[in-house]
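Look over what follows to help learners.
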Amino acid sequence: MNPPMNPPVLRCVICRSSYPTAVQRYHCDCGGLLEVAHDLAALGARVSRELFDARLGDRTFPNGSGVWRYRELLGIGTSPPGPPFLMESVNGEGDRGRPQGAAPTVGAPPCGCPVPVGASPLAAAAEPDPTRRGMERGDVGTSPPTPSPTRRGADAGGAGDDPLGTGAIISAPEGNTNLYPAGTSLARWVGVDDLWLKHEGENPTGSFKDRGMTVGVTQARRLGAKIVACASTGNTASSMAAYAARGDFRAFVFLPRGEIAQGKLSQALAYGARTVEVRGDFDTAMHLVAELAHDHAVYVLNSINPFRLEGQKTIVYELIQQLGWSPPDWIVLPGGNLGNTSAFGKALLELRDLGLIARLPRLAVIQAAGASPFAAAFRTGFREFQPQKAQTIATAIKIGHPVNYAKARRVVEALDGVVEQVTDQEIMDAKALVDRAGIGCEPASAASVAGARKLAVARTIRPGDRVVALLTGHLLKDPEASLNYHYGRLPDISPVAPNRPIAIEPTLDQVRRLLREDTR
């Protein structure tokens, strides 16, 4: 018989105050960010590798979703919702979620200033467990083991065991993205023998955001919200607009005017979101959304929303399951607002504490040089943090004041991680090679590959390490960047792998000459 399980709560990463999950809240009264805290001791008796492997081949919902397959670990549906949409405002209306006169929660500072590590729930993880860390490095083989044979049965947990009821979950479905072997040429360029690319651009709207959005929008439905909103550099807007349409929410997206790739802007418009172009950068738009949430019954779906990050944890769950539950030596990912960094660390520590993995990989967070406040803070040992005016071709990570700084810092410290930066030249050259490998990605995704190469050159990543690099978005998210690279139109970037089209006269002789001369 399974032990009783406490419901998940929202817990402050600084002072560890707790709040019920059935209240709209993004920050603690102390100003700290919140995360969903689980009763891992009780969950350990309810989940197993065998459970998740048994669900893997089941295409029926919810097991057919690469997010909801791991539903016990998402913090939704295991406690009853409260009264519809407990709004926490600053105007005295609908203050049932917090005491009258308490500090507002949505627009609280994003904890950009350093905070003692000991205040964090991750602090225990920052001190390596001597019984575990002895296993934290070593050879994990040259190719992923084949997952366990799938089967249907009571232990697989079909739709009938969904605590919310399948009608309450808003899903596309999402996840189930490929983990590609990078191929010999790309791996040699990076400088490692065992390189894999986890391609989150294969989600329904073309980016990893769908994993977080299915959970965030489902939580919005659970709370009874009618309006959802986000600030975005493009991918969050695309994803939220699509999931809001599926869930019949009114959606408002706030974008920095003139700074969004056309592919992403077209998605937000096509899916029906009210699209607001703000004269300013992403950080200006984010501040506006935070203020909006004080005065109106709007559910914010940026990565300050802890349920967004619960969904994004499943990237890690899935890639490790794809590797036969044997973690790689490194997971390398782009860093912008640092939601994925926060989610990845939380996922890895939970998997370890649940006994689903025996060792922890290291994380490498890669920022664009023109938008690298986290990398700059890392170089000071996190003693200093200074927001930046962001400027990079990688628009998805063009963020100068990441709201998840506090969470991400603790993750890097807990997992012996590193933070590096790469130039736009390095990003676009890496992108060209990922594209040439037949996989493809948007510019921000290629930061992970460029960063892996830089770390391999520095011997931080060793040639024999198994490395998984995260690709966050589809190539067609930003086709202008690809075209301008190959045409040589990008300022201050000299393409090392250009592939310009060739104009010829419509004659067979011209074609034959081309075939003779093309020696690539």
